[in-house]
Design goal:
The chain is α+β, with helices and mostly antiparallel strands. 44% of the residues lie in helices and 17% in strands.
Length: 257
């Protein structure tokens, strides 16, 4: 499988490079979204670096980090951890691990490649080539396809996992097993993350929490507040006050330490 010859967008949802001003802390917030992240950090003025894999989170994580020269954040579409990384997504859930622990020597080599990259296109090319060496066979598994179809239904507006299973012609147990292996969390946890993301996006332009709750798929406003407390650790009001009244794109942690 030669990834550089394929559309990178098939597997990657977003790629961002951030270079904070020297001496300034890099504040990040990562809300549950069902995504697996590949994270590269350039340290000590770009002379050293590391690469991490961050699995899908079931609770929000907030962190402030100094000493970063630049950070590259690659967000995979749900359901591609097994073929691209060679590891079941469930093994990465709520974890941030060095890529070297997953790939061995190849993880260290990718770090060197990214330290030498000089443009976004160069980064994408080097990552794609590294992934191409680690794609699993068969690349397209039946369970992976099932999980990605379920993701599309849940993100497309279906709120009940049982109806998703019915529409896909499988049992809820079968769907849960495929989803956990390929996405990293269960379909119900993923559905909660979808609702949370919808509510956050809507709240960026509206203060009508009752309407936001209904449109995002919650039973009522109390259900929304309870989910915020459990997944984010804050009430909706406290979360947006912390953000200074404006919403920023959810982003991953910058690694341990």
């Amino acid at each position: 499988m030669d990834l550089p010859t394929l559309a990178f967008s098939r597997f990657v949802e977003d790629l961002r490079a951030v270079a904070p001003p020297p001496g300034q802390a890099f504040d990040l917030e990562w809300l549950p979204d069902g995504r697996t992240i590949l994270l590269f950090r350039a340290l000590e003025g770009g002379r050293k670096g590391d690469v991490w894999v961050a699995g899908p989170r079931m609770r929000a994580l907030f962190k402030s980090k100094t000493g970063l020269a630049r950070t590259v954040i690659l967000r995979f579409k749900p359901g591609w951890s097994v073929p691209l990384l060679g590891v079941a997504a469930s093994e990465l859930a709520d974890r941030i691990v060095p890529l070297e622990d997953v790939w061995g020597r190849a993880g260290r080599e990718l770090c060197g490649e990214l330290l030498a990259a000089r443009s976004r296109a160069d980064v994408m090319d080097r990552v794609a080539r590294a992934l191409a060496l680690h794609t699993g066979q068969p690349f397209e598994t039946a369970s992976g396809q099932l999980a990605r179809r379920a993701v599309r239904l849940l993100e497309g507006g279906e709120v009940r996992v049982e109806r998703v299973a019915d529409r896909l012609g499988v049992t809820a147990r079968h769907l849960r097993r495929a989803f956990t292996e390929n996405v990293g969390i269960g379909p119900k946890e993923f559905a909660r993350a979808v609702r949370l993301q919808r509510a956050v996006q809507m709240a960026a332009i509206s203060c009508d929490w009752a309407r936001i709750a209904a449109d995002a798929g919650y039973y009522d406003q109390a259900h929304l507040i309870a989910d915020f407390r459990q997944l984010v650790g804050l009430t909706p009001g406290a979360f947006f006050k912390r953000a200074g009244g404006r919403m920023t794109q959810p982003a991953p942690d910058v690694g341990p330490g």
